[in-house]
Design a protein that fits this description.
24% strand, 4-stranded mixed sheet, globular, alpha+beta, Deoxyribonuclease I, Chain A, 3-stranded antiparallel sheet, 10 strands, 3 helices, 148 residues, single chain
Length: 148
Amino acid sequence: MASSFWKGNASEKHRKYALLPYILLMTYTTRKYYGDTVRQLKQSSQEGLWCVLGDFNCIRHPSERIGKCERLYGDNSIQEFNEWIDDLEVLEAPSLGRHFTWFRPNGESRSRLDRFLISHEWRDRWPGSVQFTLPRNFSDHCPILLRT
C-alpha cells in the first residue's frame, strides 16, 4: 500500500503554504502510521497554513454512517480519529452538498469518509473556505473539492 505526502511552497507576498494530501485509501492500521507522520511533519514545520485531505476511512460521528457496518461493537476509532484531529489542531472545513462521500455499490450503506481538514490559520486567512461533495461517477467515493 502506498500513500503520498506532498509539501508545496507557493508564495503570496513571501508566505509559504503547506499541503499534505492523503490520496489513497487508509486502513485503520495505515492511517495510524501515516497519522504519526503527518503529526511529525506539522510539528517540524514553521508554516501555519495547513490542509490535510483525503479518504481517512473513518467517521467522526455515528450520523456519518448509515447501513450495515463491518466494525465491531465497542470500536473506538471515532474517538481516536477525533483526538488525532484535535492533536493536529485542525478543523473540518464546512461542507456543502451531499452528506456522504462513500457508497456501497448495492446502495445499502453509505458513510462520510473523505474530508478536508484545515488549520485555524487557514480558516482565518480564507474564512469562506468550504468543501463540496460532488456527484460520484465510476468510483464508490465521491470527489471532494475545497473552495477558498
